[in-house]
Amino acid sequence: MNYKESLDFLFSQLPMFSRIGAAAYKPGLDTSINLDNRFGNPHRRFKSIHIAGTNGKGSTSHLLASILQSQGYKVGLYTSPHLADFRERMRINGKMIPEQKVIDFVERWQNLDYDGHPSFFELTMMMAFDWFAEESVDYAVIEVGMGGRLDSTNIISPIASVITNISPDHTQFLGDTLPAIAREKAGIIKAVTPVVIGNAEGEVREVFRSKAAEVNAPIVFAQDTPAADFETIEDGTILISSKVYGSIISPLGGEYQKENLNTVLHAVDMLRDCGVGIYDSSVREGIEKVIENTGLAGRWMITSRSPLTICDTGHNIAGLTYTMHQLKSLYRHRLKEWEESGIGHRPVLRMVIGFVNDKDVEHIAPLFPDEGLYYLTQASVPRAMPVENLTEIFVSKGYKPCHCSDNVPGSVEKALKEATPNDILFIGGSTFVVADYLAGR
Predict the structure, then answer these.
(1) What is the Cα–Cα distance from 276 to 265, expressed in whole angstroms?
(2) Has this prediction a pTM greater than 0.90?
(3) Do 268 and 327 sit in the same domain of this protein?
(4) I want to staple 427 with a disulfide (CB 3.0 to 4.6 A). Which of 115, 311, 331, 364 is the partner?
(5) C-alpha of 269 from chain center
(6) Phi and psi at residue 220, to the nearest 5°
(7) Is the predicted pLDDT of residue 170 greater than 50, yes or no?
């Protein structure tokens, strides 16, 4: 078996939620526990940190892994989904799992006398845990796939947990109220294991407080005590000003990253209380080098300055509210500068947008800027919303799409051909739209 054949097996033989949606969703821990036993319980051979939440858990995971790596630890990082390369899902000190390790694991799995039927997520998670154990990582940062209580990753016994925030997403699986979703996320809170909550209000906050009290887990709400001042800089970065750490420039420039960064700084304090040695200098370096250290991509990612081209994987109401607010402010600032200077063409905001079928686009669409020119598109996964359906929704909301295509790279190419250097091009709506764009660059 070669690498391509191994990937073909993983993608075609196993139900994969990110591609086909609900049909691949498999809640419960029985299969993960059985797999874990078959592979010798690899997760017990390293210390782990568990990250859940509706938005920001990927960025938070990468930031914590980068800080630990900057301290000199050997750090595993497990996240999902991937953008361009399957191996992005599992890294050690930023390096993706080697292709041969993927081949070896798939062959081992195929040779096991096991009559279960794991999902894509369950088996690839076990691949990561097995590799982390084999490589003797000091710490592994493990991102939840969906929810928490019944997520495959919840077989681990972490030294600490983080829950970033709660907002409506995957309601058909996790519940249609915020407290119901919070109860699923709170399932990662373990007995006598500290947890940091990034942002929680009202009933959601009480869900977390009650669960922590029930299992005697120390709990910190990061929003209660800002760990620093955070300021968005026009060049697409965030300036962090802290009495403890001094000035730090974060390359993750999305407005929503301010909340993630505050959560991460509180998580560092929590890890120190757990006995994890982390120097102040490692916190600064880890934040500033998070992209270099971990390969994080697709978060308010600027890929060109002329025209200014930004892609972002935000895909639900909460995430897109932040992103669209920032995008509108950026465009209006650029427009004001042009009006004052009169140099070049009038800036145009060009939007390459697509979604997956299970997103509530009817309620998401009004978040997008009225002044945008829309290039509606369709990602190359079966779960993608057909561009014809997306066009119908956007037209019903009063938008006038200028181009519709079922090919993301083609949509981007069309927008770039029509753009001038003063324009802003935004690519997003779905993780898979960003993935197609980055793969086609």
Answers:
(1) 14
(2) yes
(3) no
(4) 311
(5) 23
(6) -130, 135
(7) no
Report d(CA 379, CA 359) in Å as an integer. Answer: 14
Q: Coil, helix or strand for 240?
A: strand
* Dist. CA 227–CA 230, nearest whole Å: 9
- In this structure, of 16-25, 284-293, 315-324, 336-345, the range with the lowest mean pLDDT score is 16-25
Report residue 90 as tokens.
């599992």
Instruction: For residues 37 and 173, state if they share a domain.
Output: yes
Number of domains within the chain: 2
Q: Count the Cβ atoms, other than its own, within 10 Å of residue 17.
A: 21
pLDDT of residue 51 exceeding 60:
yes
The one-character DSSP state at 384 is B
What single-letter amino acid sits at 50? Answer: H
Residue whose token pair is 């409506």: 168
DSSP helix/strand/coil, 300: coil
Six-digit token pair at 373? 């020119």
Residue 52 in any domain: the answer is: yes
Residue with tokens 């006598």: 192
For residue 125, the SS3 value is helix
Q: Is 212 found in the same domain as 342?
A: no
Mean pLDDT of 372-383: 95
Nearest CA among 100, 148, 75, 42 for reference residue 295: 75
Domain match, 419 and 311 both: yes
Answer yes or no: is pLDDT of 4 > 80: yes
Task: Give the pLDDT band (50/70/90) at residue 17.
Answer: low
Contact 24, 120 (CB under 8 A): yes
Residues shown for the chain:
441
The reply to whether 97 and 197 lie within a common domain is: yes
Residue 75 phi/psi, 5-degree rounding, is -125, 125
As a whole number, mean pLDDT of residues 416-434 equals 96
The CA radius of gyration of the chain, in Å to the nearest whole number, is 22
